[in-house]
Amino acid sequence: MRKIELTKRQEHILQIVQDNGPITGEHIAEQLNLTRATLRPDLAILTMAGYLDARPRVGYFYTGKSGTQLLTENLKNFLVKDYQSIPVVVNENVSVYDAICTMFLEDVGTLFVVDQNTLLVGVLSRKDLLRASIGKQELTSIPVNIIMTRMPNITMCEKEDLLIDIAQKLIDKQIDALPVVRKTDKGFEVIGRVTKTNIAKAFVALGNE
Ligand code: ADP
């Protein structure tokens, strides 16, 4: 289901079905003085977009859904797993200096910190690293686990979560990203990353569909 710009003819078909539905393709074609074959692409578009529903031997009927309703329904089908990015992780013992280098080299704004078992233990944002850099400390000798936001205070998500719920979490917690995790007996494995950019991409995809 998607929001689309309807042509004059498609608007006309919608009106006919709204007034007369259920109505067969044959009868819609008659009312428009067109052949059934000419109408077929329009009917297919309107059905795929969710404006019309078709039942065999009954005909077409109007679903009563507005473009906005269809758009909202579509948005609620977006899952984390379809929009997530690859996570960038560092070990909890690496220095703040190395974490800064990783952030630049990998071109990300958030790093996830893992322990020796590659389980999630923390998050590092740009400002966490900037804050640590303001002081006079030697950045090569401070491990990131001193300055990171640590478990259990990490906001996480799973790959089957709805993207819209995750967008809400980013807003509520005022953060830029969160890790996509898989729960194991020992803790959480980091399998992905959802950022404000992923949400923006989903938003654009929705608009372009
Ligand atoms: P920045 O600090 O660069 O503005 P964020 O807004 O993402 O970036 O981070 C704000 C604070 O929240 C930082 O201290 C960071 O460690 C923490 N943080 C970031 N992401 C998460 C998360 N998913 N869960 C918990 N804390 C987080």
Automatic annotation (TrEMBL):
CBS domain location is 83-141, 148-209
Kindly give the Gene3D superfamilies that the UniProt entry links to this protein: CBS-domain (3.10.580.10), Winged helix-like DNA-binding domain superfamily/Winged helix DNA-binding domain (1.10.10.10)
List the PROSITE patterns hit by this protein, alphabetically.
CBS
| Record keywords | CBS domain, Repeat
Q: Which SUPFAM superfamilies match?
A: CBS-domain pair, Winged helix' DNA-binding domain
Entry's Pfam families?
Answer: CBS, HTH_11
Protein name, as recorded: Transcriptional regulator
Q: Which organism is it from?
A: Bacillus salipaludis
